[in-house]
Specification:
With 328 residues, this protein is α/β, with parallel strands linked by helices. It contains eleven helices and eight strands.
Length: 328
């Protein structure tokens, strides 16, 4: 299956509006995938060229509520289902005074990873984590928040995809799962390495806190998903983020453009109480409990924090970074 992710909002620390990350899930079986592609492209072709950029891509924020309802009716409510994993945050509810503590804990873990790899004589990996820590420390509130939320959205949509594929009896597609993230997030190749590493470790951390759903039958009889992503009794997502997670240009991938349109619908309804007809259609596509999860960070006393190596996804518990190998 394909999971495409896009976001909307400025993520300014003082914003009272809900900023959103939306992941949409499309079945990968050829006939179902082609049908969804054709439904979207047919709707897209119906939009006047004046509302498209030079690449033929629609700026969905310029569409009317009626046009978005037409999208919801023709694309989201079609015979081929599209799953949605929405994640909302009101930045004003997550002030820098709290958010910076969570970032400080992440930096402690990254730098502990640097020390650990140096002691192991693995200079290349130590340098990578050192560069990662320096890069992360220089990011502003919006950039760090987007990293955190994108990692959370990937983890939640991954969990939802597994659970929904089990109940829908199409779990054979799990070995071909692929993430497509709007390339607006990253521009430089080195930066992309850092993003992938943070996202991979976020998924690993959340899989420990909230175990990934698998059937007892898989444990007993085996399953290709476990063969691909579990080693020595724990999940290893190196392959997922090295080969099956890409930062893509939206004009080349219709799935990301679907996520963009869904984002606009959610943002208009949740923030402005507009687009109600479209929202009433797409909300039935929300996976898990059918609700929009609103993300709020918990405050804590940083001075009482004690580093635990056994829980550090950047240290001894980490798999090797996805894009870097030890020097010979």
């Amino acid at each position: 299956m394909i999971i495409a992710i896009d976001e909307t909002g400025d993520f300014n620390e003082s914003s009272e509006r809900l900023n959103l990350f939306i992941a949409i899930q499309i079945r990968q079986r050829k006939t179902l995938y082609r049908q969804k592609h054709d439904e979207f492209c047919s709707w897209e072709a119906s939009i006047d060229r004046s509302l498209k950029n030079h690449k033929g891509e629609i700026k969905t924020s310029s569409l009317s509520d009626d046009q978005l309802f037409d999208f919801a009716r023709r694309v989201m409510a079609g015979a081929v289902p599209v799953g949605i994993t929405p994640l909302a945050i009101r930045p004003a509810d997550n002030p820098p005074s709290v958010f910076d503590k969570h970032c400080a804990v992440k930096l402690i873990g990254i730098r502990a990873g640097v020390d650990w790899y140096r002691k192991q004589g693995r200079a290349s990996l130590a340098r990578t984590y050192e560069e990662l820590g320096n890069w992360f420390e220089k990011l502003n509130y919006q950039q760090r928040m987007k990293i955190l939320l994108l990692g959370t959205c990937i983890a939640d949509s991954f969990t939802n995809a597994i659970g929904h594929s089990i109940t829908g009896k199409y779990d054979s597609e799990l070995t071909r799962i692929r993430f497509k993230v709007d390339r607006d997030f990253v521009r430089e190749p080195r930066t992309e390495i850092f993003w992938r590493e943070l996202l991979r470790n976020e998924l690993y951390f959340r899989s420990v806190e909230q175990p990934i759903p698998i059937l007892k039958e898989w444990e007993k009889n085996g399953h290709p998903f476990l063969d691909m992503y579990r080693k020595n009794g724990r999940f290893d997502f190196n392959l997922l983020f090295r080969k099956n997670c890409g930062f893509e240009n939206s004009h080349e991938h219709f799935e990301i453009r679907i996520a963009d349109a869904v984002n606009t619908i959610f943002s208009r309804f949740l923030n402005d109480r507009r687009c109600g007809r479209a929202y009433n259609l797409v909300r039935h596509c929300i996976l898990r409990d059918g609700h929009v999860q609103q993300f709020v960070l918990k405050d804590f006393d940083l001075s009482s924090y004690r580093y635990d190596p056994s829980k550090n996804p950047f240290g001894p518990m980490s798999d090797e970074p996805t894009d870097v190998a030890d020097s010979p």
